[in-house]
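Example record

Each entry pairs one chain with its bound ligand, uridine-diphosphate-N-acetylglucosamine.
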Amino acid sequence: MSRARVLITGGAGFIGSHVGRALLEGGYRVRALDMLTPQVHPERLRPDYLDCDIELMIGDVRDPHAVRRALIDVDSVVHLAARVGVGQSMYEVGDYVSVNSLGTAVLLQALLDHPVQRLVVASSMSIYGEGSYVERNGRPATARARARDQLAARAWEPRGEHDQELTPVPTPETKPPSLNSIYALNKFEQERSALLFGEAYGIPTVALRFFNVYGPHQALSNPYTGVLAIFAARLLNDKPPLVFEDGEQRRDFVCVKDVAALCRSVLERSGLAGEVINVGSGTSVTVNEIARRLASILGKEAIEPELTGEYRVGDIRHCFADITRAMQTLAFEPSVTLEAGITELAEWLEGQVADDRIDQARRELSSRGLTV
Ligand code: UD1
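Structure tokens for the complex follow.
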């Protein structure tokens, strides 16, 4: 029997390259469709980190001809192609809607003529807005999105409907979405359209809600990459990490290798059609802790993080994953500790030109009133 072929849209990117490798290791043939977007691939060349057994087709997911070609002889699709900066989505609105929403629509349209056995779509924790919270007595409560005047008063913690104090708890997939950025809207639309298309045409489809994915191959040239890579690039350039708010906001950092292994197991399990699944580590850490741990692993303890006291418009305070569903349905068990994952990221970064463009991104956001 010939080996199954998987198409990964955005397959030359950070997450896609690891998914590709995990699939090759599982005996699959892998094709990547990727436009080598300049913000991620400034040289517009096949990235060195991309496994040479991955067939790379350079093309735009919005181009129906490119997508049709890429789907030839394909058994399953992992749809990762997207613009991914939350802040940037607020001023490059047309481009985000075009790549993320139209790109997904073009793919679905093409799948009508090339049905596949499984479709996996990358969604995001950003669709939750604020994560889940409880009141002091443990009763679940909805956190109000933080208003500008609250943030201007540097009162960082979100409060409940009756202004009560809240404590963050792990966020399950059942939390209703709260869409606070163009990016979050795009991701929710991608997720919903793929799931309803899959249901209508009998293509088993699964949406993965990624939390803060980190690891080797993160695009350092992209200032909208995640905070871990941004801080690492700062430290490697002997500059202090710039911490927004008071640094006590919590996130769930999950190593890209665990994410790739999970993607592969989604392709290999039946019976998950229509599911949405959180992909996180199930543990949370503050931004301050991240800055401290990175500095210590990189031997840069002398560089103190700089607390800017600023906030990014659209940022949420706390969100970390309840991964019960992934554990139960996929036997998912995160295997890379934060310590080991950061060490691996740091080793990879040391061999890179850590091109630190965060100052440029900060100026761009602040000139548009998107950091305050
Ligand atoms: C966001 C999205 C997530 C998306 C990810 C990557 C939300 C809720 N989540 O995550 O879906 O996958 O971007 O695009 O929108 N920070 C600093 N200094 C910096 C950079 C960031 O202090 O230089 C802080 C931020 O204010 C935030 C935290 O670090 O509190 C994490 O930021 P980031 O890595 O950009 O990811 P999220 O906003 O959590």
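The pocket of uridine-diphosphate-N-acetylglucosamine is lined by residues 84-86, 124-126, 181, 210, 212, 226-227, 230, 242-244, 249, 251, 287, 312, 315-316, 319, 358 (CB under 6 Å).
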